[in-house]
Every structure is written in structure tokens, then in C-alpha cells.
Amino acid sequence: MRLHEVKELFQIVEKKKLNDAVVMVRIAAPLIAKKVLPGQFIIFRLDEFGERVPLTVADYDREGGTITLIFQIAGETTRQFSLLEAGDSILDLAGPLGVPTELPEGTKSVCVIGGGVGCAIAYPQAKHLHSLGLEVDTIVGFRNKDIVILEDEFRACSDNLYLCTDDGSYGTKGFVTNVLQQQLEQGKKYDVVIAIGPVPMMKFVCKTTEPFGVKTIVSLNPIMVDGTGMCGGCRVTVGGKIKYACVDGPDFDGHQVDFDELMRRNGTYKRQEQECNLFRKEVQ
Questions:
Q1: Where does FAD bind (predicted)?
Q2: What domains can be seen in the chain, in order of their start residue?
């Protein structure tokens, strides 16, 4: 298959900026759209010189043959991705990868929690669970009103939506854990809590649910290279055992995750990333 034929498979159908730092793209990927389930991810490369970047699938249209990706502009690859427009194509899109989210048998009531860009991953969870007829409460948190995303979409698939901002500029002032704690203390019964977002947020959601004995699933985002379990870069410690997020996850029992180790590992290349961003600004 020639290169131009491959690129036609992964054409951007729609692009939208959700805020100054977050972009949504809908891409033609019929084989992935046919199989992908909530919780799974893809790995993309923009071109033959590009790095491999994992992104959880935010939505999918099986009939239309498209998948939706939502990403934050955080480095050079996502910056370049954000400059593409509808009609442009990317070289590689591998997936679906990872294990779909699994709920305990008999689950009837679920609380889906998203933080920041993690809401892009929380949304397909809430949408799917709502479509199954489950009771879905959704708690989403952002730093301020200006970066709120997917509010209307969450309202459409939630029995109750609780929106929080750190500074109180929109919705309830405070963190998602404040709302969750209040709900649990008032006697709200959830069979499962699904938390997706920054690692510290997921850690404290788990600390909030643990005293109440509520099963809590988290979607982890460790450093990842190949996405097939061979490189070992995405290893995490769960229940005292080594797991690989790309093939064993990305979903895990949050009460068993060593979050402190995960945060240390995620910061391994922080200095190099800062130097790279500084160099890019100097040459622009």
C-alpha cells in the first residue's frame, strides 16, 4: 500500500478548538470505529518522523466510520496536530488498544468523575453507561470557567451533573472530591466510581471512596512507547504487582494503585520536555 493511500484512511473530518489549549478532531478510521469500546485508546503518528502518542478515544461513530480524539496542546507533537485542519491526514493510527472498561456484575448506579482534559475520557464512559440504562451521576472539575469542555454533552448523558471550578467562576466552587464526599456522606449509593484525570485528582478520589467501600476504577496515563507491552515504559504497581497500562489497563482498581510511584515516573522527562519547549520558543 502506497503512502498516500495510507494517509487517506486517517483523514481529519472535523476539527474544533474547545478552548485555547484543547482541540477536538474527528478522524476517518472505520476499522477502529467498528471495534473500539469505552476505556480503549489509540496511538498516532503525524508523519514518518513523528513520535508515537497515545490518546484515549473520546467518542466513536460505527456507522460513519469515525473516531473522536480530544487532546491538550502540551508538546511539539500535539502543537503540530493542532495546526492541522479538516481535510488534512495523519500517517498512523493504531488501535483499539488496551482493555475496555469492565464493571462488576449487577452494577446499577455509577458516578463518573472527570478532571480537566480527563473529561474527554470520562465522557464516553458516561455516554456508554447511560445508553445501557444505568443511573449515571457525573462530576467534572476545571480550574476556571474558561477551560470548561463538553458541558452540554455531559448533561445529555447524566442523571445528575455536578460541575466544579477551583476558583468558583462557574458551577460549584471547589474540587470534585468535595462534591463526591458530600454525596457519599448524604447517603448516595454508588456501585462503582470511575475517575479519570490528573493523577493527584484520581489519588484523592480513591482516598475519598475507600472509607465508604465503593469500588473505584481509574484510567492511568503513564509514559508509553509501543502500546503492546514490549517496552515496559508504562509499567505501574497495582496491588504490589507490576502491571502494564497498555495491555493490562489502562483501567485499574484505584484502591490498589501506587499513585506516588506513578507521579514520580511521569516526571522522569520533565526537564527534557521543558528544554525542548524552550528551544522551540527560541527558534520560532
A1: 70-72
A2: 3-97 (2.40.30.10), 102-219 (3.40.50.80), 222-284 (no CATH)
